[in-house]
């Protein structure tokens, strides 16, 4: 497949998020200089790591408008047949080109978002689906397909209605009162035929939250002053491990700990942590 049929995509409006996207894209370029990266944004920028910039003006009143901007342009305006979309607060620890092969068998791939407080609802009854947790829409691998045409159209239509029903003048940063796009994504997916591969936490390591993993971290998802320090901590001593150990991330201390399932032994110094 031609290199430009595969690419990485950011959607960002406003200086804060554009600058974050630059840091993330630079981390990817250091690992693989040949990758093609596109930024969809509200203004032109110069001297950036992006291979293509697509301008889509927008007025942002609060985070829900930013999420809607993402949903509106992620699929409709991607220049690639196969896309890895990333939130701006991400950082690459490894080259992720091999991930695109997943799309030979699935329409998309993404990790779960168990910490999202909003419950998806049944498209049939409108009752909460108590056993379903949303997917995290900050790292999404997808391909152009008839199934995804339906899914992304429904997601946009449903989330536009959700945002229109909210009084953004009262935006206070709370997901309890202002539902994000993730539960709506799952509700739209339930009305589509798209096949989803659920990624492990290693592909979307939500560093502000507690999580576990048992393979090297590929993408960090969170805001940090020193991403390299976080990367080194998450993947600390991985290559020397004799057996597979489950790792746990302690977000308050930015520290990883290991659990040997064979012996029940926990490895890690709880007094050691990275100050930020």
Summarize the structure.
The protein is of the alpha/beta class and 276 residues long.
**Taking all residues together, what is the mean pLDDT?**
89
CATH homologous superfamily title of the largest domain: Spore Coat Polysaccharide Biosynthesis Protein SpsA, Chain A
Q: Can you name the CATH architecture of the largest domain? A: Alpha-Beta Complex
Low-confidence stretches: none
Which radius of gyration do the C-alpha atoms yield?
19 Å
Q: What is the percent of helical residues?
A: 10-25%
- Structural class computed from helices and strand pairing: alpha/beta
Our count of domains comes out at: 2
Distance between the termini: 42 Å
Order of helices and strands: EHEEHEEEEHHEEEEHEEE
The oligomeric state of the chains shown is single chain
Number of helices: 5
Shape: globular
What does it look like?
It is a single chain. The chain has about 280 residues and is α/β, with parallel strands linked by helices. It has helices spanning about 15-30, 65-75, 145-165, 180-190, 225-235; strands spanning about 5-10, 35-40, 50-55, 80-85, 90, 110, 140-145, 195-200, 205, 210-215, 220, 245-250, 255-260, 265. Strands 3-2-1-4-7-6-8 form a 7-stranded mixed beta sheet, sandwiched between helices. The radius of gyration is 19 Å and the shape is globular. It starts with 5 loop residues before the first strand and ends in a 9-residue tail after the last strand. The mean pLDDT is about 90.
